[in-house]
Amino acid sequence: MHFALWSKSTTPTLWFPKANGRPGTSGRFAVARLLPDGRLDLSFAGRGYRILPVRESGAYATAGALDVGGRAILAGRTGSLLGFAALGESGQLDRSYGRRGFALHDTRDGYVPGDIADDSHRRIVAALESIGSPSTPRKGVFRAWRLRADGSLDPRFGGDGRVAVRLGSRLGTARSVALQGEGRILLGGWAKLPGTTDTDFALVRLRGGV
Predict the structure, then answer these.
(1) pTM greater than 0.85 (yes/no)
(2) Is-contact 97 45, C-beta < 8 A?
């Protein structure tokens, strides 16, 4: 297990344990908020942290971001689905998001949200990372999703909210996302030719639109 964090100005920092992305991992989505001196912020969920039972087993968070409305958006995997959760500033689930605070979407096996970002239009952009090293042409693509403020996939992005970019004959995966001006989406990751062990950095830029 490793960790990820993000902060907003000088307000308390949100922190969540981030799973390594191994299939079969059992657990929950979890998030904590820390004060600037490192203590738990007890005004968040009444104890400084929140554990979300997305499913009975097989759920783990892999990415998180703050949206322009101040909500904490968590993303990860739950069973065979990709899951997204939205929490308000006090740690309560935003029940207008998905179904009672959770949005679950079908996906191809072998991918998790490697990174997510808010595009300042109340939309979340997710870079999907393959679990393990891509070894087949099916995994040799950069994948990105865009979700609307209610957790549904945005049909204005790729026709169904999902975009896949093949890297020619190279295998690769996206790992991070950054948003640029005029809605452009920059995906960062790596790529390699089949049958080799050498890898290169790879960048893909999408016209996300506004």
Answers:
(1) no
(2) no
